[in-house]
Every structure is written in C-alpha cells, then in structure tokens.
Specification:
By secondary structure, the chain is α/β, with parallel strands linked by helices. The protein is 29% helix and 32% strand. The protein has 2 domains: 29-162, Beta-Lactamase (2-Layer Sandwich), CATH 3.30.450; 171-411, Rossmann fold. The strands form 5 sheets. Strands 14-13-15-16-12-17-20 form a 7-stranded mixed beta sheet, with helices on both faces. A 6-stranded antiparallel beta sheet has the order 8-7-6-11-10-9, covered by helices on one side. Bound molecules: zinc ion.
C-alpha cells in the first residue's frame, strides 16, 4: 500500500491511528478564520472571561484549541507550565509538536474554565485530578478527558481527545503486508479461541482490535466490550467503560458480560491475574475473545501469562493467535529525499525525511505497523513475512527511513 498525492494541498495517507484519513492541509489561514497562532497571540494580548466583551474569551480559546487539535488529528493536547508561560503541545502520530505559548494570566483563567467544565475542584492545585467534558464540533462529538498534575512550575494539564476517530476501517486499511493480513483474517474467522494483540503503549493495539471486530462483525453476533476508556464508538457493539472509581472492575465486568449471552467478547486490557482468569474462562466457555497485553514481543506474551498465573495448558489449548505490533513513523511522501545506507556491508537505496508544510516540517506523516504473528494451531501459515522482510519492503517503497528502525531491525 502506498500513499498518493492527490493534489498539492489534499493528500491521503494511511495512518494507523487514523486509518485512511483524508487530511486537508490549509496552506494559508483564511481571512475569516483565525489560525491557532493568531488566537493564542490575541489571547496573550487581551483575554476576557465572557464572549460579550472584546478580545478573546476563554471559552473561545479552549474551543479553538480543541478544534485545531482535532483538525490536525492530535490525540492529546498538553498544557505544560514553565516559568511565566505555558507551552501548548499536540501529540500527533505519537510525537509531540509545539504549537505555541500562553501567558500565565491567561493560563490561570483557562485552568479554572477547564476545571469547571470537568466538575473538578477549582481550589485544588496541589493534588492530581481527573474529569471529562463533551465538546460538539460540527458533525463530531468529542469527549475530552482531563488530567491535571501538580508540577514545580504549576499544574500541568493533558486533554485526551476521544471520539474523533469514528471512521475506522477494515483490517485491510491498517497497512499489514498482504500475507500477514490473510493469516490474521483466517485465524479470526474461526470464531473461537483467544486472540491477543500485544505491544508497547501507543502501538495501535486498540485500532487493530477494532479493525478486527469490524472485519468479523455481522448482525447475527452479539459483540460486547469492556474498555478503559472507550476509544472508538462502534455501531452494533455493546461497549462498556470500566469506571475509574473502581466500582466496576475488569474482572466483575467480564463476569457480568458472560451473563449477557455474548458471542464475541473484547476485553480492553488484561492487566491482572483476576482479569486473566476471567479472559480464559470466557474463552473456555466457547466465546471468541480478544484482549491486549503489554509486552514487546509475541513470545513475551507467554511469559506475561505465566506471571499472571495462567497454566501452560490453558495457553496451549485456548489461544488462537498472538499479534505483536509496533508502529513506525511513515515518511512524508511530499518531501522525502533519496538516500543510500549500508546494512550488513551492503549498500541499499532508500529515502530519508526532509520537511515541508504538509508534514509540519517533521518529514513524517502517519504511521504503519510492523508485526510478528504467532499462530497456535496445527494449520501452518506459509510465507508469513518476518519483521526484517516487512521493514525492507517498506524501506524500498519509501515508507520507512532506515535509521529510524535500525535498532529495531538489529534486535528483531
Ligand atoms: Zn513533508
């Protein structure tokens, strides 16, 4: 799968987190709509608490930030206090980008506004707090998760943006190589066993699991999930969120779900022995089950399950497949430059990042998965691409920069 330039301003790229999203890059801020830089600069000069006065009102400022972050497919907005200023950063494709700064006076008013929206204690700034609020933007309903944290320079706030990725797709749009994708589909279409997706934080495990559910979903199946948080809303799937107050644990949630006559169960994460026990019970009682673990490799899953007191026989008899994946930054196809590199004493041709407006001068746009697939069955899957083969395929296609994945390649 390659990325195509459809015009100088509009381009389609496959991005793991925002699968096949079409992004429009505005070359110049239009006269009517102020750019985020202009909004921040105005707010720093003159801000007000209500929309009725001149200057930038605090609610307007927050709305402009959320709108801009969503337009740039950011997953989080970081508001990070430093001496007398507050840095604003977005996390896009897993990396943080500096957006601008706010004066501390604007910041104080903004913090109060965010806390009021999230029903947090506005007088408390020395203890971490968590909350949420909803924001409607055009056709999207964005859920904003607030996390405040005291630092030596003041309260750091991270706003996680959920719900902007309603248009997730079929497994074929994630970017796995064809043979790997075929093997995954074959295994999930057996409609039984436990399928585990593993990888470090931000490796796109949830996105892959949702693409898998999308692939096997039919109106005749009762699909139920337990998640923390619900990152995507999926039509026809009964999704439940684990509450942070501890009233509903993963373990109690699975126990209850089993009484809901499910066919397919997705448990967001198996993080403790009790949940692991319930995940295997669900599988052993004939439900197709999906979950994620937090390990670097597919083999690491076996050790992790041992640590969670799962007997070896359970593992052998119930797991259908383990997919260990990580996301690699994809080169920006608008500005990448040819480049030569040496690996194992051989010289290869590839591409390196450069930087342009389309990629915020970073040289990268989107991410793609590199995965290892362990299948637990008698059936053999021939020609499953190794990690090295996947990496070299993408280097030749100009999707990956050799130096970015060199260390990964050497440990694979
Ligand atoms: Zn570029």
């Amino acid at each position: 799968m390659t990325m195509k330039n459809t015009s100088s301003q509009k381009y389609t790229h496959f991005v793991h987190e925002e699968v096949s999203l079409t992004t429009t890059v505005t070359e110049k801020p239009s006269k009517k709509k102020a750019s985020i830089e202009e909004v921040l600069s105005q707010a720093n000069k003159h801000f007000t608490l209500s929309k009725n006065e001149s200057g930038i009102a605090i609610p307007e400022l927050l709305e402009a930030l959320i709108k801009d972050a969503v337009a740039q497919s950011a997953s989080d907005i970081h508001l990070f206090p430093r001496n007398q200023t507050v840095a604003i950063q977005y996390r896009i494709d897993g990396s943080l980008y500096m957006i601008g700064q706010l004066h501390e006076n604007v910041w104080r008013a903004l913090v109060v506004h965010i806390k009021v929206l999230g029903n947090l204690n506005i007088a408390e700034s020395y203890l971490p707090q968590g909350g949420r609020f909803q924001k409607s933007l055009d056709t999207k309903n964005i859920e904003v998760r607030i996390s405040t944290h005291p630092t030596n320079c003041g309260e750091s706030i991270v706003l996680r943006l959920l719900g902007q990725k309603e248009n997730f797709h079929h497994l074929s749009q994630i970017g796995f190589l064809p043979n790997l994708q075929k093997a995954i589909i074959k295994v999930i279409q057996r409609n039984e066993g436990l399928f585990i997706v593993t990888g470090p934080t931000g490796s796109g495990k949830t996105t892959t699991l949702y693409a898998i559910l999308q692939t096997i979903q039919t109106p005749h199946l009762n699909i139920v999930t337990l998640e923390q948080p619900i990152e995507y809303r999926m039509k026809g799937v009964k999704q439940t969120e684990i509450q942070e107050d501890g009233k509903l644990s993963f373990e109690a949630g699975v126990r209850s779900l089993l009484r809901q006559d499910p066919d397919i169960i997705l448990i967001g994460e198996t993080r403790d022995t009790e949940t692991a026990k319930m995940v295997f019970r669900a599988t052993m009682t004939g439900h197709q089950t999906f979950t994620t673990l937090h390990t670097k490799t597919a083999q690491g899953v076996l050790q992790r399950l041992k640590d969670l007191d799962v007997p070896d026989t359970y593992v052998k008899e119930n797991i259908s497949g383990v997919l260990a994946q990580r996301l690699c930054r994809c080169l920006c196809h608008t500005c990448k430059k040819p480049h030569q590199f040496t690996y194992n004493n051989k010289t290869y041709k590839g591409f390196r990042p450069n930087g342009c407006k389309a990629c915020r001068q970073s040289g990268y746009l989107g991410r793609l998965p590199i995965a290892e697939f362990l299948v637990f069955s008698k059936e053999k899957f021939e020609n499953l691409p190794t990690i090295e083969e996947q990496i070299f395929f993408h280097i030749e296609k100009g999707n990956l920069f050799f130096e970015d994945i060199q260390s990964f390649l050497e440990t694979a």
